[in-house]
Amino acid sequence: MPIAAAEYDYVVVGAGPAGCLLANRLSANPAHRVLLLEAGGRDNYPWIHIPVGYLFCIGNPRTDWCFKTEAQEGLQGRALSYPRGKVLGGCSSINGMIYMRGQAQDYDGWAAQGNPGWAWKDVLPLFKQSENHFAGGSQFHSDGGEWRVEQQRLHWPILDAFRDAAAQSGIAPISDFNTGDNEGCGYFQVNQKAGVRWNAAKAFLKPIRQRPNLTVLTDVEVDRVVLENGRACNVLGRQNGQQMSCKARKEIVLCAGSVGSPGILQRSGIGPSNVLKPLGIDVVHELPGVGGNLQDHLQLRLIYKLENARTLNQIAGTVWGKMGMGLRYLYDRSGPLSMAPSQLGAFARSGPEQASANLQYHVQPLSLERFGEPLHAFPAFTASVCDLRPQSRGRIDIRSANPADAPLIRPNYLSHPEDLRVAADAIRLTRRIVAAPALSQFKPVEYLPGDSLQTEEQLHEAAARIGTTIFHPVGTCRMGCDKDAVVDAQLRVHGVPGLRIADASVMPRITSGNTCSPTLMIAEKAAQLILSPNTRSLAPQRETVNAI
């Protein structure tokens, strides 16, 4: 039998970006007893906080779930690593630290799909509410929140040259990607404070750790949600080998992400019967959309060998170079150790038929075969480009009723012909940028995928061979009012009172950029909806699906 725990008003499952913010907001009222459950451990691993330490956090079971996809037909049968944060702060403790909201049309599109209250005009104040921007308050930014945004602390001549080459190719310089239209090229702004990673645990939990009405438990792997008379009331999990039960008087909020949240629902008997019944799980409430609608940004990493250039490949390739990097970071928290994984960004259109930027570049003064392997011995840079609005859709489902079993992750990359077409156009655009005069002094030569590949079919093959995730899975508990939607516009799980979801899994369509800060915005919206009882959704009512 599970060990009975104290009752709480709110139980929040998952201490990633969304869970940290939501626990902060819900516990601001001392009358609310709030429990935050995290499956990972504390964020006291030193490499979490040194920005370049993401190299030692991704693929590390101390901080990463180390998931893998199933073999992907669209990627020549390759299975990809699928990093997800397993630590306080979640993915904000291991990600690229890039502050990116996406485009205004992303959110206007959500609202147009039957989700009132989610248009750009509605969500911009929510972004600003949590933001602490280096430039201070303005029409688009705020300095009053907890989520620190700073400029990067170093520049690279090769990246400056790429920015100039982009301008020569029709992609104008831009100083701020976060005003609703991110088309252009410039250095990313990052979630750092004085050269140190600023994760969600620092931003939203550390300042309130003394609140007596907030309990934070780590190393608790949640199994399922229990319903009584159709209402979600209890969370069952396991900590240090012991079963535990946590009762919620008001609401349970899942913030376990696009992998974790659908898994908890499915183990609870909430989901598609054709997935649950073969696993021996009783269907408590049929919701066919749980686990579906998976979207992710697939990046194509084009690598160029250089001459007359100094890149991280050379600096980090010697003992003296590594010592210099360490001393510089100790001195003023600058230099290569303060680097986000990607420093320069660009948003561009793959072709004239695109109404807005549909490609994102992450440009890096380094190269390697794949994450976790050593840097190349030759000077090089990487221009990684992804399709911001993929048409391919996949699924994430549980493999068994045992929460310890890794899920089945099937993104179905490049399964839609439009994604293949955009991938080929993206490679062509990258080649045009690299051929611009601003980069000629460095004599770039395409190392990957190789400039001998020119035809449409060859470029499709190249995309399948070099494509990899950029770690932005969303959509597996989609918001909407149709039969396949999982939550409504107030983030309430359809047909299950007392249960909400507030994380990237509720996105109807993926945002046009990095997904961490949009996830924080979703949690800010959830707090507003939970704490403002007069807030009402104007969304059309979906058809009721009877419980089984």
UniProtKB/TrEMBL annotation:
Keywords: FAD, Flavoprotein, Oxidoreductase. Belongs to the GMC oxidoreductase family. This is Alcohol dehydrogenase [acceptor]. Its cofactor is FAD. Its EC number is 1.1.99.-. InterPro entries: FAD/NAD-bd_sf, GMC_OxRdtase, GMC_OxRdtase_N, GMC_OxRtase_C. Residues 257-271 form the Glucose-methanol-choline oxidoreductase N-terminal domain. The keyword Lyase does not apply. GO terms for molecular function: flavin adenine dinucleotide binding; oxidoreductase activity, acting on CH-OH group of donors. The keyword Transport does not apply. FAD binds at residues 87, 222. It comes from Pseudomonas antarctica.
